[in-house]
Amino acid sequence: MLQKSEPQYLVPKYSLLELERLLGKLGQNTQRIEDSVLIGCSEQHDAWFALDIGLNHSSSINASLQKPEMETELRGSFMDLRKAFLQLNAKDVSLLSTAQALLRWHDAHQFCSRSGQPTKKNVAGSKRICPANNIIYYPQMAPVVITLVSDGPRCLLARQSSFPKGVYSALAGFCDIGESLEETVRREVAEEVGLEVERLQYSASQHWPFPNSSLMIACHATVKPGQTKIHVNLQELEAAAWFSHEEVATALRRNDSYTLQQNITPPLRLPPKFAIAHQLIKEWVENPACPSLPA
Ligand SMILES: NC(=O)C1=CN([C@@H]2O[C@H](COP(=O)(O)OP(=O)(O)OC[C@H]3O[C@@H](n4cnc5c(N)ncnc54)[C@H](OP(=O)(O)O)[C@@H]3O)[C@@H](O)[C@H]2O)C=CC1
Ligand SMILES: [Mg+2]
């Protein structure tokens, strides 16, 4: 849920006292505050916790609470998480992404997989413990590599059928057990477009809450100039193609919301700013020879 505060949107933030009052008003037990999880702290070192006051939450005291009532009470509106990310600054994107991932992990790990007994959250919410056998469960992240492949003057972008119309991104893939990141990059690029990676350069990483909790590890890669013929794996991708520097630079400059309002589908759309794929593409546009160094 986001609250509109002209000219921007904000993530709802409350002090403990305000939250107790709010839960009372929503007819929920204030004991629920103990379900909250630590997600970071402010520059003034105030701790930030996240609490799921979800609509259809199994442990919700007041399951009958309706979405419109909640929106009125909190003066905000519920929206898709990806759409919410488009409205927020980087700090709030990071907080919301951590909160969503951690709360969802707790919700999905209520029982010990060995004893079948209910697990118990520690105070901060950084782990769950089985009281029957003391097994500790920690939140999990799946490592994913995302690679922008270039042959020098062009870069390779691909799209999956689930992407919004016209959007192309860098190649991504989950790491398999036992693989190094380098091995995953080489395997994914070979599997998805049939190319052999020549040189690999790390750029940056990002926590990504979709579909569960991933650690996106972003890299630039090059292929040999003479070996650029792609074989698109149509089981994984809808399309993949080489794009010139000019095409990608133009797409990066284009104001997506404007073209969408005009109901025009541009030839190439890129991932939104909050996605690390956007950063990879921007780095390459600014410095195609050595993308992860400042231009
Ligand atoms: N932040 C960003 O800029 C971007 C983020 N991404 C993210 O990267 C992720 C990976 O990209 P994608 O191309 O889909 O990956 P892959 O190319 O690895 O293909 C996805 C398939 O991998 C299998 N898989 C293996 N391990 C897992 C796991 N831990 N969780 C889920 N599926 C797994 C599944 O296959 P099976 O169904 O056979 O089990 C799944 O369908 C996506 O979730 C996407 O959200 C992608 C692009 C940009
Ligand atoms: Mg993939």
UniProtKB/TrEMBL annotation:
Q: What is its EC number?
A: 3.6.1.22
The cofactors required by this protein are:
Mg(2+)
Q: Tell me which residues make up the Nudix hydrolase domain.
A: 139-265
Residue ranges the record marks as coiled coil: none
Which keywords, in A-to-Z order, does the entry hold? Hydrolase, Magnesium, Metal-binding, NAD
Q: Does the keyword Protein biosynthesis apply?
A: no
> What SUPFAM superfamilies has UniProt attached to this entry?
Nudix
Could you confirm whether the keyword Transit peptide appears in this record? no
Signal peptide start and end residues: none
- Catalysed reaction(s)? NADH + H2O = reduced beta-nicotinamide D-ribonucleotide + AMP + 2 H(+); NAD(+) + H2O = beta-nicotinamide D-ribonucleotide + AMP + 2 H(+); NADPH + H2O = reduced beta-nicotinamide D-ribonucleotide + adenosine 2',5'-bisphosphate + 2 H(+)
In terms of InterPro entries, this protein maps to:
NADH_PPase-like_N, NudC-like_C, NUDIX_hydrolase-like_dom_sf, NUDIX_hydrolase_CS, NUDIX_hydrolase_dom, Znr_NADH_PPase
Protein name per UniProt: NAD(+) diphosphatase
| Classification of source organism | Eukaryota, Metazoa, Chordata, Craniata, Vertebrata
